[in-house]
Specification:
The protein has 97 residues and is of the alpha+beta class. The longest helix has 19 residues.
Length: 97
């Protein structure tokens, strides 16, 4: 198992309840495919450097989780077509100190 971090940018126009539902949906997807513990931080709404899908702002959510390397492809595939996710990136984290 390796440590990963993922940054998601969600649609800024989502109402609070819908945003929470989307955050939990992503968490569940990572848990079921990654088989590890998932933690996340809501970093709030921020202005984007450039428009993404015609939005100038996005809600940033940072996830930290453990997973097998083979699970990352499955996680990306499951999440890439979700309409309320503007953009996301998953990267390998260094060892915890």
């Amino acid at each position: 198992m390796r440590n990963y971090e993922a940054m998601f940018i969600f649609n800024p126009e989502l109402v609070e309840e819908k945003l929470e539902k989307e955050i939990k949906s992503v968490e569940k997807t990572i848990k079921t495919r990654g088989k590890g513990e998932v933690k996340f931080d809501n970093l709030g709404k921020k202005t984007l450097a450039y428009p993404i899908k015609k939005f100038k702002e996005g809600v940033y959510i940072n996830y930290r989780f453990t997973a097998q390397p083979s699970a990352i492809v499955k996680i990306k595939e499951a999440l890439k077509h979700k309409e309320n996710i503007l953009r996301f990136i998953i990267f390998l984290r260094g060892k915890e100190k």
